[in-house]
């Protein structure tokens, strides 16, 4: 099996349940039940929650302790790593993706009449996750943990994802889809038509997300300045590689530059901090309400960037060329990348 692109900072995401894409569309290896059993049946953190659930299911005596669902197919996309997938489909990188349904299952017939729908719901498995957390830290809004069931976090007791996706076409057993927030190889369990009259309630209250949206309409509290040294790197990235993450970086830092795990902001010494933006890092300082961006650097360690078989790393060639231009800017190899809302 070919190696998959590692994540910045050795993130444990790089553990595919299916063969990774290398050039031609690969054939996913047959799904195994062990890939998709509930985390309650696995070892790891939060085992006290699992024990609790097991004893209660025994008590009630009616429910099985786990259910096994075979996937109906796998998503194929150029989104190899999580930050490329975006927090929801509207923020996804790739405009065209495919869902390849498994052969010999009668799915050609099951797709009949679906082509008339503009969107479909996908129900899928966060197969690159480990474990779950009852309280999670959303990337947007104040630094406040929320109950996982009040969020769209991937770290759920049963890591099921739910995504409405534009349906661009159907070719045999393959669905051609628009932007979606799934990574390559994601197992999909079901497809349902998106029916606006059933599924859309745009005026419904949205709890803490309404509060965050209201706060985002207020002017930002910090101003962000790019130092001349960082500006030279920004200009070089734009000119040579058409890479520009400065608007996103500025938006995040102007709201709140405090250390934040899911926003990939971490302290780097008493006066410095670092933020991850896609495959890149930016070092900055904060004085009063002014954030100064000092320099940029690749998020991936040089050992990964230059290793044979890791061509799928996002912006790989640009990162290697950047290091040739600014050899001092090596990534710390322990920077973590986590991207979910
Ligand atoms: C916040 S979740 C939302 C998913 C879905 N729209 C939902 O609401 O259930 C989207 C994020 O999940 C992560 N993700 C995508 N596919 C994944 C997979 N197969 N395993 C683990 N995480 C995945 C990516 O980081 C992506 O940005």
**Ligands bound, unique:** S-adenosylmethionine
Strand content: 15-25%
CATH homologous group name of the largest domain: YaeB-like
Estimated structural class: alpha+beta
Number of strand segments: 13
The rounded Rg comes to 22 Å
- CATH class categorisation of the largest domain: Mainly Beta
| CATH fold assignment of the largest domain | Elongation Factor Tu (Ef-tu), domain 3
Name the CATH architecture of the largest domain.
Beta Barrel
Physical arrangement of strands within the biggest beta sheet: 1-2-7-6-3-8
Q: State the distance separating the first and last CA atoms.
A: 32 Å
Question: How many helical elements?
Answer: 10
Roughly what is the average pLDDT, rounded to an integer? Answer: 82
Which percent range fits the helix content? Answer: 10-25%
The major β-sheet equals: 6 strands, antiparallel, barrel
Number of domains: 2
| Low-pLDDT regions | 1-53, 333-341
- The succession of helices and strands, N to C, reads HHEHEHEEEEEEHHEHHEEEEHH
Query: Which shape, going by the Cα principal axes?
Result: globular
List the helices and strands and how they pair.
Layout: H1 33-36, H2 47-60, E1 73-76, H3 82-85, E2 97-101, H4 107-110, E3 119-125, E4 135-136, E5 146-147, E6 160-171, E7 174-177, E8 187-193, H5 196-199, H6 207-216, E9 223-226, H7 228-241, H8 246-255, E10 265-267, E11 272-277, E12 280-287, E13 290-298, H9 302-305, H10 316-325
Parallel strand pairs: 9-13
Antiparallel strand pairs: 1-2, 1-8, 2-7, 3-6, 3-8, 4-5, 6-7, 10-11, 11-12, 12-13
């Amino acid at each position: 099996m070919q190696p998959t692109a590692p994540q910045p900072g050795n993130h444990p995401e790089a553990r595919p349940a299916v063969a990774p894409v290398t050039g031609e569309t690969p054939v996913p290896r047959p799904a195994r039940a062990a890939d998709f059993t509930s985390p309650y049946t696995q070892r790891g953190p939060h085992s006290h929650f699992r024990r609790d659930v097991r004893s209660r299911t025994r008590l009630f005596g009616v429910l099985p302790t786990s259910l096994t669902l075979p996937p109906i197919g796998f998503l194929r996309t150029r989104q190899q790593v999580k930050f490329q997938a975006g927090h929801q489909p509207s923020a996804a990188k790739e405009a065209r993706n495919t869902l390849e349904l498994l052969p010999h299952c009668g799915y050609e017939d099951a797709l009949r009449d679906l082509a008339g729908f503009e969107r479909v719901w996908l129900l899928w498995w966060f197969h690159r996750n480990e474990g779950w957390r009852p309280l999670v830290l959303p990337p947007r809004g104040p630094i406040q943990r929320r109950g996982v069931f009040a969020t769209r976090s991937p770290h759920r007791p049963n890591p099921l994802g739910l995504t409405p996706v534009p349906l661009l076409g159907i070719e045999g057993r393959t669905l051609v889809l628009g932007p979606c927030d799934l990574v390559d190889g994601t197992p999909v369990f079901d497809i349902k038509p998106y029916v606006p009259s059933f599924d859309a309630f745009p005026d419904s209250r949205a709890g803490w997300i309404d509060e965050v949206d209201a706060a985002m309409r207020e002017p930002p509290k910090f101003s962000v300045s790019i130092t001349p040294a960082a500006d030279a790197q920004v200009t070089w990235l734009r000119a040579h590689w058409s890479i520009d993450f400065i608007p996103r970086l500025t938006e995040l830092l102007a709201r709140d530059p405090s250390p934040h795990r899911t926003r990939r902001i971490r302290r780097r010494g008493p006066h410095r901090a670092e933020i991850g933006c896609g495959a890149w890092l930016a070092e900055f300082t904060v004085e009063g309400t002014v954030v100064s961006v000092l320099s940029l650097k690749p998020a991936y360690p040089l050992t990964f960037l230059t290793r044979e078989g890791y061509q799928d790393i996002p912006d790989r060639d640009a990162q290697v060329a950047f290091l040739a231009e600014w050899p001092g800017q090596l990534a710390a190899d322990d920077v973590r990348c986590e991207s979910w809302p």
